[in-house]
Amino acid sequence: MKRVLLFLPLIAAVILGLVLFAGIGKDPTTLDSALIGKPVPTFSLPDLQNPDRVHDESLFKGQVTLLNVWATWCPSCRQEHPFLIWLSKTQGVRLVGLDYKDTRPEALKWFKDLGNPYEVTIFDAEGKLGFDLGVYGAPETFVIDSDGVVRYRHVGVVDEKVWKEELSPLIEKLRSGTS
Amino acid sequence: MIRLLLTLLMFVYVGSAHAEAQDLYQFKDPGQETRYQELISELRCPKCQNQNIADSDAPIAADMRDEVYRMMKDGAGNEEIVDSLVARFGEFVRFKPAFNARTFLLWATPAIAVLIGLLAVAVVIVRARRRDREGAPLSDEERARAARILSGQDDRDRGTDS
Asked: Membrane spanning segments where (chain B) (predicted)?
């Protein structure tokens, strides 16, 4: 009995080590979205290119969608833009843009200069939908299922690694679940 | 001297910037303002993670302050305001996490550690007391020998002494 007690500090140290080791490599600045498993918040916002057209949450019903939150003032958005163009051209995924706290002329110029990867772009000048989605730093990308329910959020630039490891497998899973 | 002046100037500038930021909202009475200040100092900025939204300059913190102010004006209670922000940004924004199954260990660890410590101390004390009360027990043989020594009949001991 006494001998076993002698090993207690060692056991405690090993457990503490395991707990701390599990935290290594985790990025504390990426937070899980509070909206996962919940429907997209209700909204009513104009289209970026066609101001008379108004979008609401029904935009996300019917098929799996990638909702990309971006803005012209966001340098990382410029960085991820070519990859989004590639995604829309080659991967057959539905991309919806949310132009967040931006101005219309600058956003339209962005499309003219860099191309438009989005099927539609919601124009959120005051950042209202962004706020309701818990967006805290553009770019952010949400995976939304065909029922309009948020399934995943990626904070930061979407690149090949993020697409292959996080987004693409989930989209495949959601698609096979619904069809 | 110049360096000292510059340092002083720096503080003057910081002071005025702070005052400007606070003048944005109008409150009917000082109680409301205190409540507002308490609320924004308890909410954590998701962007500048170790700052509360009162201190953070991030645009998202400004949006969150706006929302707190707007909800207060609409007569919402503190719980309601915090819950609405938690629903958007997650438990993360609470500097005081709610007590539930997930945060049980977070809140209870200090109490558990104290309990374990008290238990250890109690065990040590009880053991020490028991040892004192019982003394070092003698076997029957030792008892008999002790009796012989006390009555002066043990030749072997006497032999070694002389």
From this structure: 104-126
Encoded amino acid at B66, one letter:
D
CATH 1.10.8.640 residue window(s) in chain B? 2-93
Q: Which homologous superfamily is A29-178 in?
A: Glutaredoxin (3.40.30.10)
Contact B63 A137 (CB under 8 A): no
Residue of chain A whose alpha carbon sits nearest to that of B66: A131
pLDDT at B156: 60
- CATH 1.10.8.640 assigned to B2-93: yes
Q: Which residues pair with A54 in a beta bridge?
A: A46
Of B47, B87, B88, the CB nearest to A137: B47
Contact A47, A122 (CB under 8 A): yes
- This model of the complex carries an ipTM of 0.76
List chain B pLDDT tens, one digit each, 162 residues. 667 666 665 655 554 444 445 547 888 888 888 989 988 899 999 888 788 888 888 888 988 999 999 999 888 888 899 999 999 988 888 888 878 887 888 889 999 999 999 999 999 999 988 887 776 677 788 888 888 888 887 656 554 554
Those residues with Cβ within 8 angstroms of residue A119's Cβ, 6 or more apart along the chain or in another chain: A88, A94, A95, A96
Residue of B nearest to A37 (CA): B87
As a whole number of angstroms, the distance between CA B162 and CA B9 comes to: 96
- Give the gap in angstroms from C-alpha A82 to the nearest C-alpha of chain B: 26
Considering only CB atoms, B90 lies closest to which of A31, A131, A137, namely A31
Residue B58, token pair as written in the block: 């991030």
What residues of A are in contact with residue B87 (Cβ under 8 Å)? 34
Instruction: Tell me the torsion sign for CA atoms A53, A57, A62, A67.
Output: positive
Token pair of B159 as six digits: 């032999």
Give the other-Cβ count within 10 Å of A81's Cβ: 21
